[in-house]
Amino acid sequence: MKVAIVHYWFVGMRGGEKVIDALCELYPQADIFTHVFVPDAVSDRIRAHRVTTSFINSLPRARSMYKSYLPLMPLALEQLDLSGYDLIISSESGPAKGIIAPPDALHVCYCHTPMRYIWNMYHDYRSGAGRITQLLMPPMSHYLRMWDVSAASRVDSFIANSATVADRIERYYRRESVIIHPPVDTSAFTPILTSQLGDYYLMAGELVAYKRPDLAVHAFNQIGRKLVVIGGGDMLDELKRIAGPNVTVMGSQPFEVLRDYYSHCRALIFPGEEDFGMVPVEAMAAGRPVVAFGKGGATETVAPGLSGVFFQSQEIDAIRAAILQLDEMAIDPGKISNHAARFGKQAFFKGFRSHIDQLLDLKSGTVSRLEA
Question: Which keywords label this protein (predicted)?
């Protein structure tokens, strides 16, 4: 079976790219199509595949300004020639599903979320943008929404990475989806003895506005407990500026360093609403509890009373109350790690294979009946 994987861009190894890495393990013969490809920014497994880029990759400063070319990406996708492929898997949170599939191909979209900057978080993104972007966003987003809904009709089956995303797919595309949680390499983490823990809390991940890292920094400035921040992103410099003496902003770090900080933290702080959120699962795999905002994907992975606590409003007092609640909770690192194993790679492989096999069997049966 000839397989194509379509991903919006490869400029780092974040959650979406980790899913692609797992798909490359599942389909080692697959070819990859994308808008922008930075080989040094991705895993060896992804680099081992044949990668075809759209014309976006050849535009000026595409590696750093790829999001500026968003209005051109629908056109770029439709120029990609996927003739001869039997299975096409598009990976969507930026434009990816809008390819023109061959008539006989099966097109499955693994949706991390419908593009949040034109749908559920449009007003947040626009209010935080510069003046020129604020002026351009309404007409561009209007055009992109119409194209996005049209592109959704080209997909044979949607897979959502969480129930939260499944609700958005139904809301914006009027399509049903199957929920298959993304793969987390839970086997890479091992709980340590409680006596070996550090005296700090941890916030990790991409430092962008919708994840609310600023809220966590402000909260710990007031609470006075130690917070370590690991990650890169648009808000890195701002967080360094506002961090108090008890907050250490480390920026991006190698996985080995992040893994060590996961293992030794008192708890992970997760202040934003995520589509799924691999970071809390990684922290739990290391045996550490999570203090999370009680919306989005975290509500599907964090078990209150077992692996963490929720706060229900994005306010400093709510975070303080949740931390005090965690202080009173009995923490069992082994049970937390076992809970996280439910979201490991093998569960993803099993669910994905099963769904694709069912779709192929259904497609084969339909073709047989038509030929008869």
Answer: Transferase
Q: What is the mean pLDDT of the chain?
A: 95
The pLDDT of residue 248 is above 60: yes
Per-residue pLDDT tens for 257-289? 999 999 999 999 999 999 999 999 999 999 999
Specify the pLDDT at position 372. 46
- The domains of the chain, with CATH numbers, are 3-183+345-371 (3.40.50.2000), 186-342 (3.40.50.2000)
- Contact call for residues 22 and 183 (beta carbons, < 8 A): yes
- Neighbouring C-alpha atoms within 13 Å toward the C-beta of 132: 1
**317: Cβ–Cβ under 8 A, 6 or more apart, which residues?**
none
- 262 neighbors 286 (Cβ within 8 angstroms): yes
**Distance from C-alpha of 33 to C-alpha of 10, rounded to nearest angstrom:** 10
The 10s digit of each residue's pLDDT in 75-95 is: 999 999 999 999 999 999 999
92 forms bridges with which residues in the sheet? 111
Q: What pLDDT, on the 0 to 100 scale, is given for residue 366?
A: 63
Sheet strand arrangement including 290-293 = 247-251, 226-230, 200-204, 268-270, 290-293, 308-311
Strands (E), the chain: 3-7, 31-34, 51-53, 87-92, 106-111, 157-160, 177-179, 200-204, 226-230, 247-251, 268-270, 290-293, 308-311
> What ranges in 80-207 are assigned the alpha helix state H?
122-127, 131-152, 163-173
The label of the residue with tokens 């069997």 reads 361
- Rounded Cα distance between 183 and 185, Å, is 7
- Taking the CA atoms of residue 180, residue 182, residue 185 and residue 190 in that order, the dihedral angle to the nearest 10 degrees is -80
